[in-house]
Amino acid sequence: MNALIKAAPTALTTISEPEWLTRSLNALEDDYLRPKITASLALNSEQRSFVASLVDKIRARLSECDLERSMKEITGLLMSFPAGPVSREASNARAKGYITALDDLPVWAISSACRAWLRGTVKNQGNLAFAPSPPQLRQAALEFMGPLTAQRYRYELLLRADPQEEFSDEYRRDMLIKIRKLFAGEPT
Question: Which residues pair with residue 6 across a beta bridge?
Answer without folding.
Answer: 14
